C-alpha cells in the first residue's frame, strides 16, 4: 500500500463536503472537504493506493485536474487499482457534488 500527498495553490474556499465512489476492485472513493485551515488557500490531496510505484501517474492526473479546479480543499482518495480515467471521473463527480451542495 502506498501513501502519497500533493499540494496545489487555490483561489477560493470550499464550503461543503462530498463523497463519491467506493473502494473496490478497479475503483476508488474521493472525499472532498473544506481545507483544514480556512485562511490558507491551498488544496491538500492524500492518496492511499493498493498499487505501488505509480506516483508519477497520480501526479500527472492531479496536475491536470488542478489546472481546472481552484478550490481550497482537503481531498482524500482511497484507491483499489482504478485507472487514470476513473480517477479523473471521480474527482469531477466530487467537485460537482460539492458545488451542488453549495446551491442547496
Automatic annotation (TrEMBL):
<dbReference type="GO" id="GO:0005737">
    <property type="term" value="C:cytoplasm"/>
</dbReference>
<feature type="modified residue" description="O-(phosphoribosyl dephospho-coenzyme A)serine">
    <location>
        <position position="25"/>
    </location>
</feature>
<protein>
    <recommendedName>
        <fullName>Malonate decarboxylase acyl carrier protein</fullName>
    </recommendedName>
</protein>
<keyword id="KW-0597">Phosphoprotein</keyword>
<keyword id="KW-0963">Cytoplasm</keyword>
<dbReference type="InterPro" id="IPR009662">
    <property type="entry name" value="Malonate_deCO2ase_dsu"/>
</dbReference>
<dbReference type="Pfam" id="PF06857">
    <property type="entry name" value="ACP"/>
</dbReference>
<dbReference type="InterPro" id="IPR023439">
    <property type="entry name" value="Mal_deCO2ase/Cit_lyase_ACP"/>
</dbReference>
